[in-house]
């Protein structure tokens, strides 16, 4: 039945839309939060007010995640599954990651007494040596090494619809190579060839506690590892840091990670902390965004303890140094 106000009862099966609808309600939840993962499905009963025509198959496919060699112009069609081919585009236009933070919807909605929690984050990854250095098996291994899994095309599409943009081609789980672009521009048109690329990884949950450890003189990489071990912790992986960022970790000081990279997570952007975009910021040595810092450089360190061990704190995400809140 359709009320005079054109309000329609619908069951929302798109995860990103559901997250947006649940958040837009602005009401105290009567039930426990609904947990869903990026690119998964969720059914929520909501009243939706349509303020403009629903998208058709034609209008819905005008933007999306680009596959290599898909276009020689600025249009952004939905990606097609294909094997890699063509010349790779130059360096990324951004040092940090755009989204995925939250979904948005242009239609007002009422979802009384219901809240949701969206888990999972897609991120671009490359090693410290060079750009486009992975075959597909090496890309799978790289994600596993940093505590993540290689992302699926569906997960990358979901991240794209949450605002994620990255002008770097990367492997996905179906052995295609893609990258998400919202603003078509020179060098991001997909003219690529070869069989070695970066990779898009996926981290879903932080299965343990993440800490930031510091000292007045900071740590080299070896000192950082020893500092975590002294506390009976491990050095955190890149995947764990992304999962912590996705759960709200904001820390403006760079810290060592287990793969030798130096990164810091920013939820609330500010100029002195990497610019006006949220994301996990990475310190590269060279302008083309390659090269991890020298192991003798001095930084803080991110440490991690899995839930199976005996925790120094109650189980959860600890947004700061041991005993000191993060800035």
From TrEMBL:
GO molecular function, one term: hyaluronic acid binding
Region ranges (Disordered): 59-112
Keyword Glycosyltransferase: no
Any one GO biological process: skeletal system development
Disulfide cross-links: 167-188, 252-273
Name this protein carries in UniProt: Link domain-containing protein
CDD domains the UniProt entry points to: Link_domain_CSPGs_modules_1_3, Link_domain_CSPGs_modules_2_4
Keywords recorded for this protein, A-Z: Disulfide bond, Glycoprotein, Immunoglobulin domain, Proteoglycan, Repeat, Secreted, Signal
Recorded GO CC terms: extracellular space; perineuronal net; synapse
PANTHER family found in the cross-reference section: AGGRECAN/VERSICAN PROTEOGLYCAN, BREVICAN CORE PROTEIN
Signal peptide: none
SMART domains tied to this protein: LINK
Organism: Naja naja
């Amino acid at each position: 039945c359709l009320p005079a106000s054109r309000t329609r009862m619908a069951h929302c099966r798109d995860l990103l839309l559901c997250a947006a609808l649940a958040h837009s309600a602005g009401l105290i939840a009567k039930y426990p939060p609904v947990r869903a993962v990026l690119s998964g499905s969720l059914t929520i009963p909501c009243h939706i007010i349509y303020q403009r025509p629903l998208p058709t198959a034609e209008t819905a496919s005008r933007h999306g995640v680009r596959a290599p060699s898909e276009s020689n112009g600025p249009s952004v069609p939905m990606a097609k599954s294909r094997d890699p081919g063509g010349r790779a585009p130059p360096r990324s236009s951004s040092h940090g990651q755009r989204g995925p933070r939250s979904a948005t919807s242009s239609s007002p909605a009422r979802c009384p007494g219901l809240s949701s929690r969206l888990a999972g984050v897609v991120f671009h990854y490359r090693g410290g040596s060079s750009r486009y250095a992975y075959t597909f098996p090496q890309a799978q291994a790289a994600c596993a090494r940093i505590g993540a899994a290689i992302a699926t095309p569906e997960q990358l599409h979901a991240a794209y619809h949450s605002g994620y943009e990255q002008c770097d081609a990367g492997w996905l789980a179906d052995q295609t190579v893609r990258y998400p672009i919202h603003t078509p521009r020179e060098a991001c048109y997909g003219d690529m060839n070869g069989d070695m690329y970066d990779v898009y990884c996926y981290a879903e949950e932080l299965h343990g506690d993440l800490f930031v450890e510091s000292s007045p003189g900071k740590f080299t990489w070896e000192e950082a590892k020893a500092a975590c071990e002294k506390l009976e912790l491990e050095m955190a992986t890149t995947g764990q840091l992304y999962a912590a960022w996705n759960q709200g970790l904001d820390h403006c000081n760079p810290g060592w990670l287990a793969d030798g990279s130096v990164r810091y997570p920013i939820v609330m952007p500010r100029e002195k902390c990497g610019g006006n975009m949220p994301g996990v910021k990475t310190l590269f040595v060279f302008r083309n965004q390659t090269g991890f810092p020298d192991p003798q450089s001095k930084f803080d360190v991110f440490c991690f303890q899995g839930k199976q061990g005996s925790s120094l704190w109650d189980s959860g995400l600890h947004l700061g140094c041991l005993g000191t809140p993060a800035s």
